[in-house]
UniProtKB/TrEMBL annotation:
Monomer. Belongs to the aminoglycoside phosphotransferase family. Residues 18-74 form the Maltokinase N-terminal cap domain. This is Maltokinase. InterPro entries: Kinase-like_dom_sf, Mak_N_cap.
C-alpha cells in the first residue's frame, strides 16, 4: 500500500528531470535547479492513490513559478491525468460542490452536471492539460498557476453573463489557496464534440492551394477566405461583448508610450536569448516608435490576448473563441490590463501568416511554394480584416485605419513567437523570423 506522502517525495525528487520533457512546461529555456512542494491535497488515500500537488519550480537566475500536478501510484510516470477512473472523480467533486483538503470544487450557478463519466486527456500539444468527459464537458487543469483568479475563467464568466454566442459555456471551477490568494486551478466548460480548430482548417486549405500548380487561391476547392471573413466578424463580436460586460476606456498618449516601451523591452529581452533576431533590431525599434503615430482615437479594454488559429473552433453553428488566458509566457499583470483590441487582430493576422509559411519549413529553395504561401496569407488576412471591420464599424472601427499600430502589434507578437519557438520548437524559429524580415523589409531569412 503506497503512502501518499512517500509518493509525493518520490515524485518531487524526479521532477527536475521529468518537467522539462513535458510539452506544457513553460521553462524549457533554462535548467531546473530545484522543485519544492507548496501544497498537497490527498484526494484518494487508498490505491490507486490520487494526490493534487502544487510545486514551486526554481530556475536560474531568479525564476520561481508554481505548477500543478495530479499524481498517482497507478501508472509508471505517476501522471494521474492519463487515468480515466481517477480524473472522473474531479468531475464528480465539481458536480457536488465539494471541498477536499483545501481545494474547492464548484459548478457555476444554475448548472447541473452529469456524474460518473470517465475522463480522457486530449492528446494535442498544449500549454495546459485538458480532460474530456463523455461528449459533454472539458476540464482544463492550468499547469503553470497564476496567483489569483485566472483570466480564462474571469473572461468566460463575463462573456457568458452578456450572452456571448462565440464561447463555450463555463460550467465549473477548481480553486485553492496559494500564498493566501484564491487561485484558479481548473475550469470546466461545455465540450464541442463536432468542433474543428481553425489551424487544422487553415493548413488544409494551404495544402490544397500548394497542390494546385495552375489555380489561384480563389479557384481551389479548399478556399478559406469565407471562413476567414466570418472569423473576423466573430472576433469583433467577442470584443463588443467584452466591452459590454467589462467596459473600456479611451487610450491616451501615455498608454501608447507604455505600450511602445513594453515592446522595446520585450525585444531587448528576447534578443539577449536569441541572437538570430539581432539583424532586425533597428527596424523593429523603428516600427515600434512609429506606433506613436495613431491618427484616430483608440480604446483599451479586456481582450483575448493570445489569439491565433489554434484558439478558435469551427462548430456547425459558427466560430468559437477559446483559451482567454493570454500569452502563457507573459507576466499576469500585463495579461489582465486593459489593452487595445487591435492586439487580437494582429495575433490572428500573424496566425494566417504562420499557417501559410510553416509548410515551407525545410523547403527553403522552393520559390513556387513560397509564392503560393504569400498568396494564401494575403487573401485570408484581407478577408479576416474585412470581416472584422464590418462587424466593428460601431465599436473598435476599421483596424486598417491604425496601420502603424497594427503593424507594431504584429511585429511585437512575432518577437514573442521568436522566444516561444526558441524555447519550444526551435525548428520553427524561421517562421516568425522570416515574417519579421518580410514586414520590416530587412531581407529574407530561409524558411
Ligand atoms: N469547448 C471545447 N470544445 C471542444 N474542444 C475544445 C474546447 N476547449 C478546448 N478544446 C480543445 O482543447 C485544446 C486545448 O484547449 P486550450 O483552451 O487552447 O488549452 P491550452 O491552454 O492548453 O492551450 C484546443 O486546442 C481544442 O482542440
Ligand atoms: O495555444 P497556447 O496558449 O499554448 O499558445 C502558445 O502556443 C502556440 C502554438 O501552439 C503559439 O502559437 C504560434 O504557433 C501557432 C501554430 O502552432 C500559430 O497559429 C500562432 O500564430 C503562433 O503564435 C502561441 O504563440 C503560444 O502562446
Amino acid at each position: 500500500m503506497t503512502d501518499p506522502h512517500d509518493l509525493v517525495d518520490k515524485v518531487v525528487a524526479e521532477l527536475p528531470e521529468w518537467l522539462p520533457a513535458q510539452r506544457w512546461f513553460g521553462g524549457k529555456d533554462r535548467p531546473v535547479t530545484s522543485v519544492r512542494p507548496l501544497r498537497t491535497s490527498v484526494l484518494r488515500a487508498e490505491e490507486p492513490v490520487l494526490v493534487h500537488l502544487v510545486v514551486e519550480v526554481e530556475q536560474p537566475p531568479d525564476r520561481r513559478e508554481p505548477y500543478q500536478l495530479l499524481i498517482t501510484d497507478h501508472v509508471e510516470n505517476y501522471d494521474a491525468t492519463t487515468v480515466p477512473e481517477l480524473t472522473g472523480a474531479l468531475l464528480d467533486l465539481i458536480a457536488d460542490d465539494a471541498e477536499a483538503e483545501g481545494l474547492v470544487f464548484a459548478h457555476e450557478p444554475d448548472v447541473e452536471l452529469q456524474t460518473g463519466l470517465r475522463g480522457r486527456p486530449i492528446t494535442s500539444e498544449q500549454s495546459n492539460t485538458s480532460i474530456v468527459f463523455g461528449s459533454q464537458y472539458i476540464l482544463k487543469l492550468f499547469r503553470k498557476l497564476t496567483y489569483g483568479e485566472n483570466p480564462d475563467l474571469v473572461l468566460h464568466r463575463a462573456l457568458h453573463r452578456v450572452g456571448c454566442e462565440h464561447i463555450a459555456q463555463p460550467l465549473g471551477s477548481i480553486t485553492g489557496r496559494l500564498d493566501g490568494q484564491i487561485t484558479t486551478i481548473g475550469m470546466l466548460q461545455q465540450f464541442m464534440p463536432d468542433a474543428v480548430d481553425g489551424w487544422a482548417m487553415a493548413t488544409t486549405s494551404v495544402r490544397d492551394l500548394m497542390a494546385e500548380a495552375d489555380l489561384h487561391a480563389d479557384e481551389v476547392g479548399g478556399d478559406f477566405a469565407g471562413e476567414a471573413h466570418r472569423l473576423g466578424q466573430a472576433v469583433a463580436s467577442v470584443h463588443a461583448d467584452l466591452e459590454r460586460a467589462l467596459g473600456n476606456r479611451p487610450a491616451d498618449a501615455e498608454d501608447i508610450d507604455r505600450t511602445v516601451r513594453a515592446m522595446v523591452s520585450r525585444l531587448d529581452e528576447v534578443v539577449a536569448d536569441v541572437p538570430e533576431l539581432r539583424p532586425y533590431v533597428p527596424a523593429l525599434r523603428e516600427a515600434f516608435e512609429q506606433a506613436r503615430d495613431t491618427p484616430e482615437a483608440i480604446v483599451a479594454q479586456h481582450i483575448h490576448g493570445d489569439l491565433h488559429l489554434g484558439q478558435v473552433l469551427r462548430t456547425v453553428h459558427g466560430w468559437l473563441l477559446i483559451d482567454f488566458e493570454g500569452e502563457p509566457g507573459s507576466p499576469i499583470a500585463q495579461r489582465t490590463e486593459l489593452r487595445s483590441p487591435l492586439r487580437d487582430v494582429a495575433g490572428m493576422l500573424r496566425s494566417f501568416d504562420y499557417a501559410a509559411h510553416q509548410l515551407l519549413v525545410g523547403q527553403p529553395e522552393d520559390h513556387q511554394l513560397a509564392v503560393r504561401a504569400l498568396e494564401w496569407s494575403r487573401r485570408n488576412r484581407a478577408a479576416f480584416t474585412e470581416g472584422y471591420a464590418e462587424a466593428a464599424a460601431e465599436s473598435v472601427g476599421d483596424p486598417r485605419e491604425h496601420g502603424h499600430l497594427l503593424r507594431a502589434f504584429e511585429l511585437d507578437k512575432a518577437v514573442y513567437e521568436v522566444a516561444y519557438e526558441h524555447a519550444n520548437r526551435p525548428e520553427w524559429l524561421t517562421v516568425p523570423l522570416s515574417s519579421i524580415a518580410r514586414i520590416t523589409g530587412e531581407g529574407a531569412v530561409q524558411s
